[in-house]
Amino acid sequence: MAGSSFGTIFKLSTFGESHEFAIGGVIDGVPANFELDIEAIQKELDRRKPGQSSIVTQRKESDTVQFLSGIFEGKTTGAPIGFIIPNENQKSKDYDHLKDTFRPSHADFTYQKKFGIRDFNGGGRSSARETACRVVAGAIAKQLLASIGIRFSTYVDQIGEIRFQSTDFFEPTAIEANLVRCPDEKIAVEMENLVREIRKEGDTIGGAIRCVIEYVPIGLGEPVFDKLHADLGKAMLSINAVKGFEIGSGFDSISMRGSQHNDLFNADGTTKTNHSGGIQGGISNGMPISFRVAFKPVATIMQDQLSINTEGEEVTVSGKGRHDACVVPRAVPIVEAMAAITILDFHLRNKSIHL
Amino acid sequence: MAGSSFGTIFKLSTFGESHEFAIGGVIDGVPANFELDIEAIQKELDRRKPGQSSIVTQRKESDTVQFLSGIFEGKTTGAPIGFIIPNENQKSKDYDHLKDTFRPSHADFTYQKKFGIRDFNGGGRSSARETACRVVAGAIAKQLLASIGIRFSTYVDQIGEIRFQSTDFFEPTAIEANLVRCPDEKIAVEMENLVREIRKEGDTIGGAIRCVIEYVPIGLGEPVFDKLHADLGKAMLSINAVKGFEIGSGFDSISMRGSQHNDLFNADGTTKTNHSGGIQGGISNGMPISFRVAFKPVATIMQDQLSINTEGEEVTVSGKGRHDACVVPRAVPIVEAMAAITILDFHLRNKSIHL
Amino acid sequence: MAGSSFGTIFKLSTFGESHEFAIGGVIDGVPANFELDIEAIQKELDRRKPGQSSIVTQRKESDTVQFLSGIFEGKTTGAPIGFIIPNENQKSKDYDHLKDTFRPSHADFTYQKKFGIRDFNGGGRSSARETACRVVAGAIAKQLLASIGIRFSTYVDQIGEIRFQSTDFFEPTAIEANLVRCPDEKIAVEMENLVREIRKEGDTIGGAIRCVIEYVPIGLGEPVFDKLHADLGKAMLSINAVKGFEIGSGFDSISMRGSQHNDLFNADGTTKTNHSGGIQGGISNGMPISFRVAFKPVATIMQDQLSINTEGEEVTVSGKGRHDACVVPRAVPIVEAMAAITILDFHLRNKSIHL
Amino acid sequence: MAGSSFGTIFKLSTFGESHEFAIGGVIDGVPANFELDIEAIQKELDRRKPGQSSIVTQRKESDTVQFLSGIFEGKTTGAPIGFIIPNENQKSKDYDHLKDTFRPSHADFTYQKKFGIRDFNGGGRSSARETACRVVAGAIAKQLLASIGIRFSTYVDQIGEIRFQSTDFFEPTAIEANLVRCPDEKIAVEMENLVREIRKEGDTIGGAIRCVIEYVPIGLGEPVFDKLHADLGKAMLSINAVKGFEIGSGFDSISMRGSQHNDLFNADGTTKTNHSGGIQGGISNGMPISFRVAFKPVATIMQDQLSINTEGEEVTVSGKGRHDACVVPRAVPIVEAMAAITILDFHLRNKSIHL
Asked: Of C318, C107, C116, which is closest to residue D263 (Cα–Cα)?
C-alpha cells in the first residue's frame, strides 16, 4: 500500500523518478474559481532547482512545470490540476556503476530489499528530485492562503554549529538576500563560508530550517490524532534528509517548569509568550505558528567510502561530479511548500465543523 | 473533518471525554485467528493509569477495559474489536469553576473558538485520558508483533535537565524497576527526587522518552510521503504535551559531517553505526529503530495563574487537587502503544508490495 | 484491510456481532453545537427492531441505544459520538448446531474461508443486526439535514410481484400507516397478505424500496469517481440482502431514446421530467433524488435444505424458530439511514469547494 | 473535497479535461517487479477510442498513452506509474456556442452551479474522455490478475429492447467478433442495425453490459461496508451514463422465494446455482462473479432541443457533428477496467487478513 499521496481534501499525489521521462503529480481538491499566478509557481521551483548558485549542486535542470488540466482561462475550475516537470537529465550512463552497489546511508539497500527491484538511476524514486512536485502544490497553496491573509516566513536557522536562533518573521526579501537564505547578513556570511569549506573537502554538513506562519485563523487542527502540529511534523519528516521536528519550545521544553512554560493570556486571547508555537491542544490559537526542522548532512560525499554490493561483497564507492555540500538553502522552499499544503488542507477541513 | 482515527489497515478510531460515561474505540483491520492475552492488555493500561504510584496524580480511575466484539473463544475473528473503558469519575462538580475560564496553555480556548461549545469537565475530549484507548490498541498490536519477533523498549530518557542519554535496548524488568521508568537506577533516583521536589512546589517539569524497536523486518515504510519515521513522528506528536520528535541522530545530525554521519555497511547488510535510527529513505533497514520524544511540562500547576474568561476579563486560575508533576513516567506505555500501532500498520501495508 | 467505516467527513465506524456483548460505533465529524433529539433516534431504531409487528421476526431485542460521548448538555460538541446497543439475546445455545455447518446463501462459508475462524452465533459479524448502528448514525444525519430543509421519503415499492411503482414523495404518516410501509393502502394490504402467506410456508420473498429525497441543494457530488449516485449505490449495496440499485430511470433507461430521456429545463433551472433522478454528471441538480433498491429473499427459511459442513459432507439444515418472511418493511429505516449519512457527508464535503 | 481517486491500495488518481493539454493519472500501489505488456495496454485503449468503427463517434483521437514513471526495464518498480494521454483535439472553437448554454441532461448546469466556473470545451472534466485513464489502470490490473488466473468476460447484453440475456463466460475473440461486442452473432446483427437506425435519426439509445469474472479466489471483500459488490457497484455507477447496477440475480430476485433463490452447495463448496453472482455476505465465494450495468441513452443528440442559458433564458441547442448513437460498445473496456481495478484492490486488501 503505497504512500504517494499527501493531504485529505487538498490532496497531492506525485509520481516520477530522478531519471525517467518526467516527474509530476495530480492536485485534487483545489478550491474553484481562483486566479492563479503561474509565474509565481515557477519562481518557487527556481528557488529549489539545482544550479541556482555557486554553493549548490551544479547539476543542470531547468525544472519547468507544465500544467495539463484544472485551469481554465487562468482560473482553477475545481477539477484536479495535473502537471509534469520533464527530466532533462534522463537516462544518462552516470549511474551504471551503482547498479549493483548500495551506497552508505542512501535508500539503495532498503528499496532493493523491499521491492526486489530498483531504478538505480539517480536514486530513482528515492531522489530528492521528487520534492519539486511538492513545491508546485505548495506554491498553489501559498497563493490561496495569501488571499486570506496567511503568510509564511521560512529560513535557514542553522548550518553545522552556526546557529541563527530566531523565531521572528522575516520578509522574503531578507531571506532571499543571500545564498544560504538566512535573514541575518552576518551569520549568513559565516554559513556560506562554512558551506564552501565543506564543499572543498568533498564533504557535507547538516542544518536546520525555521518556519513561521502568521495570521493563521484560530481553529485549524483536529482532535485527537490529526493535531495540526502532528500533521506538520509528518509533512516535514517526509522530506528527504529530515531527522527531527519541533514545534514552539520543542526540545527546550524538556527542562522547563510549567510555571515558566505556560503561555499567559492577554485580554484579547493572544498570549504573552508563545512557547506553544501557535498551537494549543493540536488546534491553532491565532499566535504565529513556529517550528524547526533538522536536516542531516546528505549522504552523497565526494570521498571514497567502503560499502557493499548486492552480493554482499565489500566495494569502494567513489563520489563523483556534482553534489550539495549542504541541502538546507535549497530545502527552504520545500519546507514552506509542505507547510502551506498542510495549512490549506486543515483550513478546508475546518470548513465542515459546522453544518 | 474530524481526526479520531489513526492507521490505514490496522486502524483505531476512538471516542470519549474525560468525564462522560466512557471512553472507548473500534479497532478495525485486526489480523484474524490470533489468540489474545486479555490480561496483558489490562496490565498495559495499569502502567498508564492515574494513582499507580506516589509520584503521579492521585486521581482514582481503575481504567478497566471491556471488550465488546471481535474476539471469539479468545481469538481475534478479523471483525472489528469494540471496547469501552467506563469513566468512574464522571460528572463531578469539580470543574464548574472552569466553565467560563480559559486555563493558560490548555486547549480550553482553542476548543471553544473552534467548535463554539466545549465540554469543560476535566478537559473533555482534550484530556489525556483519551490516550488510554491508544494503550488498548497498542497492547494488541504489541502481542501481534511479538509473535513475529518484534520487541519494544521504551523508557524515560530525560526529566528536566537530568538526562540518561542511552540508545540501548533495555528489558521491561529494568524499565519497570523504578517509578520513573528509567532503566539506570542511579539516574532514576535523581529523577524521582526531582519530580518530588517539583511536585512539592506545585509545579510541573518536562521530559523525554526514548523508544527502541528491535527485529523490525527490512522493508517497512512507503515512499514518499508515508516514510516510516514520518508516520512515527505523527503518531508521537499526536500525544498530549509532545513538542518534538527525532529519529536516529535527530537534531544532533545538524552539526555532523556526512563522512561522519553515513552508516557504513557490514557484509551482511547491517551497519557499523546507526545514525539513521533503523530507517533509510523512509524504509526500515533491519537495524534497531530508535527515536526520542520531547514532552513539555504539563499545563496544570498547583499555583495561581492570571488568565481570562470567555468574556475576555482577567481572572485568577487556582490549581487544586491532583496533578502530575511530570507526565513522562505515565507516558511510556502511550509512546510504546503508538509505536506498536504504527509498526503493525506498516507491516500489514507491506504485505501488498507483491501480488 | 477491513471495511467497517463509511463516509469521509461524517464518518461511521461500527463494531459488533449478533450475539457478543454489544454492537456499537463511533461517529466522527459530527457538526458541532447542534441540539440532538435523542428520543427521535430511538424511534428510528424502533422502526428497525425485531418483534415490532406480527409480520416480522418475533426475536426479542429492545435495541436501546446508549450514547457515551460527544454530546454535552444535549448538544453535539464536534467530538466523536460513541454509542453501544447491548445485545440482550447473547450467548444462547441456539446456534451450536451451526458451528460446523455452512447454510446455503449465508456468509458462513465465505467468512470461514476468508478468516479461518468464524463467530457462528447468529451469523456473527455478517448478521443484519449490525445495521442498527447505521440507523443510529442515520437518525443523527437526518436531524442535521432536516435543519437545512432536506427531507426523506422511503417506502416499500415492491414485494414479490406486487409493485407500487411510484416515485412520489410521501409523508412519514402515510408510510407508517401500515405494517409493510407502503404508502398505498390497497397495495399494502395485498403485500401484507402475501407476506403472511409466504411466512406460513416457511419461505421468504424479495422486495424493493424506493427512496425520494427533497430539497437537496444543487452541487452535492464530486467528479469523477465520487459521483453522488455512485456513493449512494455503494451505501445501498452494502446493506445485507441488497442485489441491485438504480437511480432515476435506472434499468428502464436502457430501452429509451435520448430524445425521450433528456430532461428539458424550465427557466428556473428545474427540469420538466426527472429521468436523471436528481443527479446530473454525478452532482445533485436540485430536483428530487430518487432511487430504488432491490432486496433478495433472505436466506433463512423454515424448511429443510441440503447443505455441507466444514468437512465437505452433506448435511440437512433445518430452519427453526423465528425469521423474517420479507425483510423490506424493516429495511426501510436502514435504506433511509444510509441515504442520510451519504447526503450529509457530501454536504460537508461540498463546503470545501471554495476557499 | 474532490473525488478523483479510486481504490485503497491499488489506487488510481486521474486528471484532465476533454480539450485541455492532456488527460492522465497516477497509479499508486502497483505490485512490484511485474513485467508489463505495454502494447496490450494500448490495445485496450483502442477498444475504447472514438472512430474505431462506423457505428461510433467519428471524432479523431489516437488516444496514445505515454508512461512517465514507475516502470524500469519493462518491469513495475513499486513506484507510482504516472501517465498521460495527450489531447489531439484541443482548444477548438467547436464549443464556443456552449459557453453560456446548459444542454439538457448534461453536467453543464450542475458544474456551473457547484464550482461557479466551467470549462465548457467538450464537456471539460465531465466528458467521458476521462474514462480512458481508467482503461489504462484497468489494463495494468488485468495483466496482474491474469498472472494469478483471474479472467474477465465483458460484453454487451442489451441495446434498446434487444436483449442477449446470458450470464455465460465468452472469450475475447467472440466478443470482439462484431462492432457491438455482443458474443451472439445473430443478436449482434440486430443490435448493430438498431444502432445504425437510431444514428440516422440523430438520436441515441441505452444499453446494458454484462461482466463475468472467473477464478476469483474465495475471500475478496470486506465486512461490512466494503462488500465486494458494493465497491463494484460504486465503480460502475461512477462511469458516465450508468443508471443501474445489479449483482447475480439482481432485480429479478425481488419476485423470487428464498427456497428458490438459495444457492445449494456441492460437496466441494461450489454451488449448484449462482444467484449470488459469486459473492456471499460481501465476500467472493469462488463462483463466477456476474453483474450487469445499465446505461442511459447519452444526452448528446443530433436534434434541436429547447434549453436555457446561464441567464435563465430559453434557447435552442442544436446537435452537430459527431456523436455516439449508443455508448455501450465503447463502454465494454471501461466496465472491464473498473472491474479489474476493484478486484485487484480487494485482492491486495485481502493480503493483510493474517499477520
From this structure: C107
Per-residue model confidence as pLDDT tens digits over A98-156:
888 999 999 999 999 999 999 998 889 999 999 999 999 999 999 999 999 999 999 99
Q: Which pTM value belongs to this model?
A: 0.98
Single out the residue of C42, C338, C65, C335 nearest to residue C181, CA to CA.
C335
Distance from CA of A130 to the nearest CA of D (A): 12
The runs of H, that is alpha helices, within C26-118 are 38-48, 108-115
CB D45 within 8 A of CB D133: no
CA–CA gap between residue A342 and residue A6 (Å, rounded): 9
Cross-strand pairs, D318: D304
Establish if B2 touches chain D: CB-CB under 8 angstroms: no
Q: Take residue C263 and report the three cell numbers written for it.
A: 430532461
Contact A336, A314 (CB under 8 A): no
Q: Which of A320, A313, A299, A242 has the alpha carbon at shortest distance from A105?
A: A299
What type of residue sits at position C211? C
Q: Report how far residue D275's alpha carbon sits from residue D167's, in angstroms, rounded to the nearest whole number.
A: 11
Alpha-helix residue ranges (DSSP H) falling in D178-286: 185-200, 228-237, 258-261
A 10 A CB-CB count for C251 gives 23
Three-state DSSP class for C170? Answer: coil
C-alpha cell read off for D326: 449508443
Q: What domains sit in chain D, N to C, each tagged with a CATH number?
A: 95-350 (3.60.150.10)
Q: What is the DSSP string of B111-133?
A: HHHHHS----GGGGGGSGGGHHH
Is the preceding peptide bond at A26 cis, omega within 30 degrees of 0?
Answer: no
* Residue A69 contacts residue A55 (beta carbons within 8 Å): no
Q: Which amino acid, one-letter code, is at A168?
A: D
Residue C275 CA to residue D298 CA, distance in Å, equals 12
- A-chain residue closest to C8, CA distance: A8
CA–CA distance from B174 to each of B169, B177, B181, B216, B340 (Å)? Answer: 10, 5, 8, 22, 20
Mean pLDDT by 10 residues, chain D (355 residues): 94 94 97 98 95 86 94 97 90 73 95 95 92 98 98 98 97 97 98 97 97 98 98 98 98 98 97 98 98 97 93 88 89 98 98 95
Enumerate residues 6+ apart whose C-beta is below 8 A from D42.
D64, D65
D114/A67 Cβ within 8 A = no
Specify the amino acid at residue A270.
T
Phi-psi region of C344 (alpha: psi -120 to 50; beta: other; left: phi over 0): alpha
Count of CB contacts below 8 A, B vs C? 182
Return the number of CB contacts < 8 Å for A and B. 359
**Alpha carbon C154 to its chain's center:** 10
Nearest to B15 by CA among A146, C66, C129: C66
Q: Say if CB B119 and CB B20 are below 8 A apart.
A: yes
CA distances from D107 to A70, B14, C340, D140 (A): 16, 40, 24, 30
Give the nearest chain A residue to B276 (CA atoms): A105
Between chains, do C285 and D110 touch, taking CB under 8 Å as contact? Answer: yes
Instruction: Count CB atoms within 10 A of the CB of residue A205.
Output: 32
> C-alpha grid cell for residue C302?
423454515
CA D253 to chain centre: 25
Q: Is D104 on the interface with C (CB under 8 A)?
A: yes
End-to-end CA distance of chain B: 34
**Could you say which DSSP state residue B25 is in?**
E
Q: Are A104 and B265 in contact (CB under 8 A)?
A: yes
CB B306: neighbour CB atoms within 10 A? 12
Distance CA D146, CA C9 (A): 36
Q: Is ipTM beyond 0.85?
A: yes
pLDDT of residue C90: 64
d(CA D315, CA A10): 38
* Cα A278 off chain centre by: 20
